[in-house]
Amino acid sequence: MKYFRRVGVSVPLLLAISLGVFGLIHLIPGGPMAVYLSSPGVRPEDLARLTRALGLDQPLWRQYLQWLGGFVTGEWGFSFSDGRPVIDRVAERLPATIELMGASIVMALVATAPLGIIPAVGRGWVSRGLSIVSFAGISLPVFWFGLVLQLVFAIGLGWLPSSGRTTPGDGGAMDRLAHVLLPAAMLGAVHAAAWARYLRASIADTLEQPFVNAARARGVPPGLVLARHALRPALLPALTIILLDAALMVAGTVVTESVFAWPGLGSLFTEALARRDYTVLMAMLMLASTAVVACNLVADLLYPLLDPRVRA
Amino acid sequence: MTPHGWGPTFRFAFWWGQTFRFALVLALAAECARNAVAPGPTNDLLIVGYDREPDTLNRFSTHILEDIQSCVSEGLTTTDEQMNVVPLLAAEVPTLENGGVRMRADGRMDVTWKLRPGVKWHDGTPHTSADVKFTVDAINDPSYNPESTDGFDRISSVDTPDPLTAIVHYKEVYAPYALQFVRGTLPKHVLQGRDIDTANDYNRSPLGTGPYRVAEWKSGEFIRLERVADYWGGPQYPKIKQILFRFIANTNTRINQLKSGEVHLVAMFPWDKYREVAAIAGTIVHRTAGNAYEHVTLNEQAVPAFRDVRVRRALMHAIDRELIVKTILEGLAPITNGPIQPVSWAFTDDTTTYAFDPARAKALLAEAGWGDGKLSFTLITQAGFAVRESVAQVLQKQFRDVGVDMKIELHDGTTISSVWFEGKFEAMLHWWQMPADPELTLFFAADRTPPAGRNINYFKDEALTRLVYASDRTVDRAERKRLLGLAQQRIAELLPELPLYSITKLDAIPAGLQGFKGNPSNAGIFWNVREWGLR
After folding, report:
1. Which listed site, A106, A294, B279, B449, has its alpha carbon 20 to 30 Å from B7?
2. What value of ipTM does the predicted structure carry?
3. Which residues of B touch A25 (CB under 8 A)?
4. Quick one: pLDDT at residue B27?
5. Distance from CA of A294 to the nearest CA of B (A)
6. Does the pLDDT value for residue A126 go beyond 90?
7. CA separation for the pair A233, A229 (Å, rounded)
8. Interchain contact, A226 vs B8, CB within 8 Å
9. How far apart are CA A284 and CA A69, in angstroms?
């Protein structure tokens, strides 16, 4: 029942978000007609005709209600840019973003484990070095890091393609893997660094707890103390952060996809923003908002499974 | 081997090591994959790094440069590397001299287009005058929403006495008639009776007459064009079998792809990348004198001081354009003194010029009552355009030297467009890409302030207005040249805006590419793509 209530609260929340997002988009200077202005052949009559064709001559409240009605019934309208259904444009870009995010999360988790656990349990130069690495990871300008990856691995070493999702005419598994490594590393690096620092702090806190000391006193070897007693409670807060970050990673794809010409939702968002393609922007922002709300819900639902105290 | 019996830390180290080794193997495999599919440019494949994905390939519906479209759909005419109008699907360009243009006593005008015989659409259907008539009717039909109906709405009717002759009747004299069908024609047999706005089979893969057809469009990634086997231009054309346009919005990434050999050609890259691109082995930089010019627009509606010609002249004298060109632009762009550039047949250099003279600038400001730091305004320009941001800073310094306070605001491109259209700015650093047919009316006629035109200086001079309108109402080139020469002198004398430099287009092309000529107009560099070939 409690969970149904939480889901129920999400609906008005998303409605409020949609209203806010709709208002904000229309507050951005410029509009869908701005792209036509630099063309000398486009005259006031053309602008008026195109404005009418896109329904932009309607009052804002009516435009919002029309959009809302369409959105909830799966009719997301047509892109102002190419006239195709918004749902098609989003759907064709979604797999690329899922692929990139999936690869990024895997790479970030692989990096998080040593960067978070070793500095928490060790005291030597390796631990200190890994702490510095995670600190540097947080401080990295993401955009710059992406270009450095290109310069080193694509231009310098020639190991990996510098951008794109596939090589035209290929698109096999190895080709796709080669293409995803650099953007996934860029997107994953910052998250790995943040997650690692959080995990390290969480483990360090847990290792100070009385039940851990009790385990040590019983003669449990240090490795088992970490694995059986400390790691599970330490992962709990880290899991929340990781789940929330995974949703927010969509925002990170905007920069990553731009640098690596990755044909996902991030690059679609950049194009739609430059074009002030309101219908595409609204659909994407609502999808992202829904993903954040859903991840929060999932985190809430997972907590009791990991921590019996919450269940009680 | 599994690490049974090890402690958790060691188990973790083991798996981490395994993961690292796996990643290394993947990287090596990736290298093999990449080396196998990243060939240099050949007549089999040319890869173009393109800065944006087209919205549509229907040339009449797009607002984006028509590079890809022009490989597929051809115009009756196009403009060559010297910006001359040359025939393509037309047998010749109609003129008064060859009888193709006839002036009527009632002020109307008829243009007779003789079509090139033997031209077929890619599906084998002959290209005829019926397609010309269908195009005019479709664009003037309120149910279709093309980007612009300019010129078409001045056509009263089209007669088609035979399949290769289309007589276009204009309601009035229309000087740029020769470029009326520069975007080509729409195939009647494909689009008749259909909603063209939503005819996505055509809009995504148009049936054309050009040397290439669309083989594949992968959204967000690339468009692949393949050679049309029985192209009307003859079996020798086109020479390159496939052209692949990869969409790479980020300039740095585009140039990195040039360096890594993943793309072979990048059109119109920014000037601040010149040295970097020129140093890439196997790539040369082709320069084309452009038909655009960088200038400072002075909004007389927003800043009363700009209404005084002495103030405008003072600002011009305050700018050291030679310094800007030599330093920031590294000599890549020549100084310009007006809106019509040397590449145009209408250009004249017989106009007033303004030397860098800070003392004269100060004297003029004092004379106008705006000396001693009284003049202050804000200049807007586009963010992320490194050269332009640097030029704005130099202008700020040079204006400060003569006692003028100029602030700088940066905006994204779309915002800039709406700001100038609404007149909500004081001064703006930007360029205009001028029409291939030299039209000044849109930019300088007193009644062409927004929304009616692009006179965003809000400059009003009756004599200039009469001259530019008169030039639009004649098709006699000698007379137009005389009128436009007078207009250029009037503009130079009254200085409604501050001209800085002419835009040189920089294209990075493979060293072995033959037949590439560049193009100063909106026709783009692919106007003669059929002639391109790799050594």
Report:
1. A106
2. 0.79
3. none
4. 52
5. 27
6. no
7. 8
8. yes
9. 16
